[in-house]
TrEMBL record:
<dbReference type="InterPro" id="IPR057430">
    <property type="entry name" value="LDLRAD1_C"/>
</dbReference>
<dbReference type="Pfam" id="PF00057">
    <property type="entry name" value="Ldl_recept_a"/>
</dbReference>
<dbReference type="Pfam" id="PF25241">
    <property type="entry name" value="LDLRAD1_C"/>
</dbReference>
<keyword id="KW-1015">Disulfide bond</keyword>
<dbReference type="InterPro" id="IPR023415">
    <property type="entry name" value="LDLR_class-A_CS"/>
</dbReference>
<feature type="domain" description="LDLRAD1-like C-terminal">
    <location>
        <begin position="95"/>
        <end position="134"/>
    </location>
</feature>
<dbReference type="InterPro" id="IPR002172">
    <property type="entry name" value="LDrepeatLR_classA_rpt"/>
</dbReference>
<protein>
    <submittedName>
        <fullName>LRAD1 protein</fullName>
    </submittedName>
</protein>
<dbReference type="InterPro" id="IPR036055">
    <property type="entry name" value="LDL_receptor-like_sf"/>
</dbReference>
């Protein structure tokens, strides 16, 4: 089998198209939109039995065994697994909040351990401690 692992321009896990140049983000594979010139990212043998038919590097298994997300959704700041296992804990092994993020215990379950700094001081509570409105 062909090795299709690649890193996208923003250093995320990707899928290498047949042209050996185009690297698409993992989450664009089997999304019913052809991102590779020859449609190899939407072929039946790749997309027929998700996630089992996908190369392992494209899949992240959440702590709930019946839930999975694409590998580029791990450590993206969003709660894609529904239980934050793609953002926190040993399975995900994510770095601490980056400079564009504020570390707190969010009120919104959309986020896990950080919120985007653009939400700081916007008059809306996003952290349990209100630190996004008074400290951030």
């Amino acid at each position: 089998p062909v090795n299709r692992f690649c890193a996208t321009s923003n250093n995320q896990t990707g899928f290498l198209c047949d042209d050996r140049v185009t690297c698409i983000p993992a989450s664009q594979v089997c999304n019913r939109v052809s991102n590779c010139r020859n449609r190899e990212d939407e072929q039946e043998e790749l997309c027929g039995d998700l996630p089992h038919s996908l190369p392992g590097h494209l899949v992240f298994h959440c702590s709930n065994p019946s839930v999975w997300v694409y590998a580029d959704q791990r450590c993206n700041g969003r709660n894609d697994c529904g239980d934050c296992s793609d953002e926190t804990g040993s399975l995900a092994s994510c770095p601490l909040c980056g400079s564009e993020w504020w570390s707190c215990s969010p009120v919104l379950y959309e986020y896990c351990s950080c919120i985007p700094r653009r939400l700081c001081r916007d008059g809306i509570q996003h952290c349990h401690s209100w630190s996004d409105e008074y400290i951030c």
